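Handout, section 3.2

Students often ask what a structure token actually looks like in practice. Rather than define it abstractly, here is a full record for 8-oxo-dGTP diphosphatase. The first block is the sequence as you would receive it.
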Amino acid sequence: MLVSDLIKKPLVKVPCAIIERGGKVLAAQRSAHGSLPMKWEFPGGKLEEGESEVECLVREIREELSVEVVVEDRLPVTNRDDIGRMIQLVPFICQLVTDEIILTEHEQIFWLTPDELPALDWAEADRDVLQNYFEHLAGRRIRPIQRLNRRKPDIFPTSPGKIE
Ligand SMILES: Nc1nc2c([nH]c(=O)n2[C@@H]2O[C@H](COP(=O)(O)OP(=O)(O)OP(=O)(O)O)[C@@H](O)[C@H]2O)c(=O)[nH]1
């Protein structure tokens, strides 16, 4: 076992938003300054003490994009081994509730179809987020078919018995 395996790094949770609108997804480019300069990411940020993941995400999206979102499905987390810490991305699918986006931190944003997303220069941990998102989308496409094939629900689950 490596010594580094014995030293537990602090875990930094980072809820991030896969914001969907009209079949497109918002990708945001980090600024030229700070960590991962000019890399593409899903907007979000570090969880603060006493906050839930969803509260954090709603706050971060307000701060970074000046919009409101409704938070929907939580996708699997992905981890990034960083210097002195483990970054844990916690992605949520979100829908936009308000329209006008004002960027306060990011260099720029793109609205892209899921097919177009992989072409960007993503932060490393986001590659796994993308993969999980694509699996989620595939599940969404399968579910309506399953619904069609499902036999009609029984109005009377087993035997209706005697109706008074
Ligand atoms: N919001 C967000 N952060 C990400 C993503 N991928 C990824 O590795 N990160 C990392 O997770 C951390 C999020 O912190 P933050 O949004 O508060 O950004 P920051 O530049 O202030 O953080 P830092 O200076 O501590 O690195 C950053 O280190 C960022 O590089 C992502 O998709 N979205």
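Discussion prompt for tutorial groups: The helical segments are 3-6, 53-65, 124-149. How would you have guessed this from the sequence alone?
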